Amino acid sequence: MKLTVFLCLCLIVFAFRFSIDSNKNFQLTKSNTSKHNQSVSDVSDSLEESDLNVFDYLDVNQKSVQISGEDYSLKEFFKFELIEKTLFDSKRETRVNIVFEDATDHKKINGVLKLKCDSKVVTLKDQTSIEVGDGYQSHTYLGQIEFLNSYFIQRHEWEQQSFLFIDKNKGEEIGHFPAFPYISHDKKHIILVCSSYGEVFLGYFEISNGKIKEIISGAPKYWEPYWEHIYVDGEFDRTVDDMFWGSDGNFYAKVFSRKSLFNENSQPTQIIQYIRITPI
Fold it and tell me: What is the dihedral of CA 36, 40, 45, 48, to 10 degrees?
């Protein structure tokens, strides 16, 4: 009888100790998990509005600007703002598309795209054989920019691309851009933002009397555009814009912070945020 009571007491003590240890282990595990999640989504790695105006290099009116520390401001040209996703999504419904799409009327034949201009026929020939190597070129007709009386062409080259405006009168290039040029609703400005091999580029252009003038080119230091299925089978797909001009005259972009591209476990992190750029 005494032995039975002793064994029962031992079982009770063991169960009590096990309950305490389990609870301690649970609390420790929960604490570690919270700490890990905090390190991945640390708010200090998120963008602040003051970050949007910091550049690694900057040219204004095609003249290099000496950046002293991080105090150069583009307030003369832009107002940068962080906005909520809900506002971004609502403005997406008002996005502006200046391109007149008539690609079915301008098809390549055997890798050759011909553009009829007033003074001549511009011939763009693809170079896609393996022998050309670095000389690879392929062309895609995107449409027309009617108010500039120009064709709109995308050129794929070896590890890069460009977008061209070709004048329909003389057949000359009147615009050459390293990324898709977004034209504003009032047809007075162009913004483009792109990233390649870790480098970010922002370009801002003015359109006046049919001519395009570069106003700003630079490299944002702390943010870059978020690309998601923008290109499908090598062709631009404007149905999934992550950047656009709204009909309100502002430019909107989905971006991610470059403050911390990897977490403590060397896993890539992308803190997605949304910005609005208002020309002054």
Answer: -110
